[in-house]
Write a structure and sequence with these properties.
Blueprint (H helix, E strand, L loop, with lengths): L1 H15 L2 H4 L3 E9 L4 E4 L4 E2 L4 E6 L4 E6 L6 E9 L1 H25 L3 E4 L3 E4 L29
Parallel strand pairs: 1-8
Antiparallel strand pairs: 1-4, 2-3, 2-5, 5-6, 6-7
Length: 152
């Protein structure tokens, strides 16, 4: 009986230090752009009709964010993942308490990872304006004269 209680306590303790339990497997990523009303989309298929935009993304997913607005060049930014401070602490907790199973769960789910940059920012460049068609102000040539034969 004592072995079962000890085993149950060990499992509860191991799960409590697991990053996938304490941090979750998703993260909110905020994307802003200038001009502020630019449309935001991502390579994962998520989008917002205008900036600023906050999206929930799986921690292990790296993606590209795009910003676009009529009259501006389309902009993009790579958003990567790295082991964050909280993720490193959870991973270290697995070494002490959760063991290989906890580390494996965190590695598969990406629970130890954070997105960067977060928040992310994209500046759009205005498209070059083509000059308006300028009418020539050169003097007009007179119409050619008709030469007629004098009548006799």
């Amino acid at each position: 009986m004592n072995i079962r209680i000890l085993a149950a306590c060990s499992v509860i303790l191991a799960l409590s230090s697991c990053g996938s339990i304490t941090r979750g497997t998703t993260e909110n990523v905020t994307i802003t752009a200038i001009p502020e009303d630019a449309k935001i989309s991502t390579s994962t298929g998520q989008y917002c009709p205008r900036s600023p935009c906050t999206l929930e993304v799986k921690r292990k997913t790296e993606f590209t964010a795009f910003a676009e607005k009529e009259g501006y060049e389309k902009g993009s930014l790579e958003i990567k993942t790295k082991i964050g401070g909280g993720g490193a602490a959870g991973f270290a907790g697995n070494v002490i308490v959760g063991g290989v199973i906890g580390m494996g769960v965190d590695a598969v789910t990406g629970a130890a990872l954070d997105h960067y940059p977060n928040p992310a920012h994209i500046d759009l460049n205005r498209l070059a304006q083509l000059p308006a068609k300028v009418e020539s102000k050169a003097p007009q040539r007179p119409a050619p004269r008709r030469i007629t034969k004098p009548s006799v």
